[in-house]
Amino acid sequence: MPELTLPLVAGSSLAVRDTYDNVDPADGSVLGQVARGGAEEVDEAVRAAAQAQPAWAATPTEQRADALTRLADLVDRDREQLAHTESQDTGKPLSQARADATVAARYFRYYGRVVEAAYGDTIPLGPDTHVYTRREPYGVVGSIVAWNYPLQLASRSIAAATATGNAVVLKPADETPRTAVALAALAMEAGLPAGVVNVVPGLGAEAGAALTAHPQVAHLGFVGSTQTGRQVAHAAAERVVPAVLELGGKSAHVVFPDADLDAAAEAITRSILQNAGQTCSAGSRLVVHEDIRAELVAAVAERFGATTLGPGLDDPDLGPLVSRRQQDRVRGYVEGVASGEVVVGGTAPPQDGDLAAGAFWLPTLVDGVDPRDPIAQEEVFGPVLVTLPFEDEAQALELANGTAYGLIAALWTRDLSRAHRLAGALEAGQVFVNTFGAGGGVELPFGGVKASGYGREKGVEALAGFTHTKTVVVRLG
């Protein structure tokens, strides 16, 4: 019998009232049933978190850090099982899912280490006054994460939030709930008290909406589309609670004639094909100087053509998209393009082939797209790269900044003066020079500007995001 994915809530006794199918995007088969949590389950989870949080916040920092380190060890122990589940749920190649599990463990280990160095400050107001600040947790943190990196996204939210003394109620994406539930079970095994980490699977319009509206949730985090992010921001504003939003992107590689074109072609290919292009920071626009355009397009097209496709568990270069719905979305953008030339790809695999039952899409390169075309402006979330040629630095900057998004950008040039100058002018939360990190490491603050959201996750900066500053002023005798 297919497994049933249940909420993991401390002391929960709620019966499963409704379920929905957990679908394998590689062939459309049903992996199992997911409990369809709603307002009642969210309320129980929030109440469990609110009950557990004060004692957890009062736990010495060293003990919280030790618990997170133990959790990192357990994620490492179960790495293969977690990767298998992640690959099956999302469709991503198994090697990429293994990397996600490794990064998930790194989040818990990193925040378990750095939280012990998170101090307040003293402020020299005068000789008769002692002023200092304290960093205090918000209380119950609500977190809603996307389906593209479910294990990583859950880990980075839970790790930073719990390290600073908060309790978490996490709503995983509808399509990919299983690794988040497994992670919560490992948190309890690691010694985090019951109620500190709670996971409620369900649909966004039901469980997600209930979480954002709950009066005891003191902080909201959301990773997903800009459209839904606006709704989360509105819910946070209604209750006057802080929110961190990591939303969409339309990240550009800006390539100048003096660049190492082989290195650029490799990074450009990897950055749009990783996770089938379903990455908010995917390098989906190639802003390339006219003098090297033909050479670079040919190099990328050659790599696209050599890409292997298949079910994620077979560990190909490129797995399926997360769902048929996502496949239809990608098809709509590619078939609706009003400019440019499809150099390679542009379709799903043949419908009479081995991959016909899955949500696959061929690596697609569209050269010479009008910058105003929706495929150049909007987030496709598939293995689709468009090229935008430029003739001078000013035009390159205009094109790179010419979308509503501002998450990541990359500059490819040997001219370091140009690199530093443009890094400051690019409208993005991260800028890479002669490399591309799709968000970079655990240590690097990550987040966007404009429609890509606000607030920062990852790095030490995330600890500040999950705490508020209290200022204490003491008059000395």
From TrEMBL:
**Which catalytic residues are annotated?**
246
Start and end residues of each Aldehyde dehydrogenase domain: 18-472
**Does this UniProt record's set of keywords contain Transcription regulation?**
no
Q: Which domain of life is it from?
A: Bacteria
InterPro entries assigned to the protein according to its UniProt record, in alphabetical order? Ald_DH/histidinol_DH, Ald_DH_C, Ald_DH_CS_CYS, Ald_DH_CS_GLU, Ald_DH_N, Aldehyde_DH_dom
PROSITE patterns, sorted? ALDEHYDE_DEHYDR_CYS (PS00070), ALDEHYDE_DEHYDR_GLU (PS00687)
User: Under the GO molecular function aspect, what terms does this record hold?
Assistant: oxidoreductase activity, acting on the aldehyde or oxo group of donors, NAD or NADP as acceptor
| Keywords, alphabetical | Oxidoreductase
Asked if the keyword Kinase belongs to this entry, the reply reads no
Give the Pfam families listed for this entry: Aldedh
Q: Which family does it belong to?
A: Belongs to the aldehyde dehydrogenase family.
Name of this protein: Aldehyde dehydrogenase
